[in-house]
Amino acid sequence: MTALERLAASVLLPGFSSASAPDWLLDWLDRGLAGVCLFGQNVVDPAQLRRLTDELHARRAGVLVASDEEGGTVTRMESATGSSWPGHGTLGALDDPRTTYDVARGLGAAARAAGIDVVAAPVVDVASEPDNPVIGVRSFGADPALVARHGAQFVEGLQAAGVAACAKHFPGHGATRTDSHVALPVIEVDEATWRRRDLPPFTAAVGAGTRCVMTAHVVLTALDAVPATMSAPVLRLLREELDYDGVIVSDALDMRAISHGVGRAEGAVRALEAGVDLLCIGNPDFPDPYDDEAAVEEVVAAVVAAVAGGRLTRERLEEASGRVAALGAWAAQQAGRPRTPQPADLGVSAARCALQVRGEVGVRDDAVVLVPRTAVGFAAGRRESALVAELTARRPSWPVVADADATRARGVAADGRRVVVVVDGRLDAEAVDTVRAVLDERPDSVVVYGGPAGASDPGDHTVHTHGGGRATARAAADLILEETR
């Protein structure tokens, strides 16, 4: 292996497909690979996860293990159930900065105990577009000042627990109607609006000392005509105007905004040229499966060719590698520090305080759980509703009707039992029709909304959780089933 190949590997953060470290990955770590990004397929249980991260760290000092741990539905450590910690939307609805700090510190302590070095959170996008298919309750809310204060607290809480925070997605993904997992979003807004609305939370996160900032695969036309991940003007603004000197991490290069455009390898080269330091390759299992080892080889080869051909300077690559190495050294120092975990019930109690209730929502008799058909949430990955799992675990006799449309929902509601409707995702037009079909037959049905609260959300008996995951599910189930724990 050449020195240049090793240098190229030192700025890569790939995913992999198995629950144990494959030989090819261990070999690449020996050859200088920066680290790995974990996804749901890599985690079976806490003991297995810790064995895996110990094995990865043992290959070389400074190996980075990163994971999406936002709380709510976006988690890899607890991919099967949803997080034990409430998501950002729940924390923003509660609007208690101290609770946000405590939750982030608790989540960070759990990540540190699992051997995770970098947590890809907080999401400091401002949820200014109600029809945004990818951000929604992953954001603290629609008010820039609210997002800024909670984002800063989340950064401080995570890093107090010894894991690096990664504020995302610069320069803001909250105003899009396109999910960058699917296609390339374009934000056509004047620079003054962007500065007033989307920039303050990133300024606050940088001010709080976030060690990483993740880019967005979005075109912000006021600043450049190319995606921010590959935009030198956008990333220069982050460096120079916000005075940010930490690690700039790309969002996953396998997302279709990049992979179906310029391609993973070309996207990697352009991102490095623009000023990205650490290249997240992405998830080789979802939503578009590919060969994990081949993806690393492809990107390394492209970066080496770009330097050899004079397109990418070695100095830029060395600069990026140096920042990544410094982050790895910091993370290694944190691993041995004593931790003070937060109370185990903190996540549930925070979620409970944030519940917004209209009407009588207690269900004492037999009921049926109905889940309207909703779009796939690519950021969360595939999983069943944590609230449905919680309700049926406590009430095994309650049947579940999943993926229901309006016609099926009307038939279920006409059967006579009270209906608990669980709307986990964004309330799109089809989901509204399904909820209304239930309410036409059974106006006393309880509707649980997991997305952003809206004045037009149908129903006289509603619970707004402002997010999902296990903590929120437990809080909502306690309320609906009139139980205390």
TrEMBL record:
Q: Which SUPFAM superfamilies match?
A: (Trans)glycosidases
| Pfam families according to UniProt | Glyco_hydro_3
Please give the superkingdom of this protein's source.
Bacteria
Q: Does the keyword Cytoplasm apply?
A: no
Q: Which UniProt keywords apply?
A: Glycosidase, Hydrolase
KW Hydrolase (keyword) present:
yes
A Gene Ontology molecular function term for this protein is: hydrolase activity, hydrolyzing O-glycosyl compounds
A Gene Ontology biological process in which this protein takes part is: peptidoglycan turnover
> Which residue intervals define the domain Glycoside hydrolase family 3 N-terminal in the entry?
30-326
Family classification: Belongs to the glycosyl hydrolase 3 family.
Q: What is this protein called?
A: Glycoside hydrolase family 3 protein
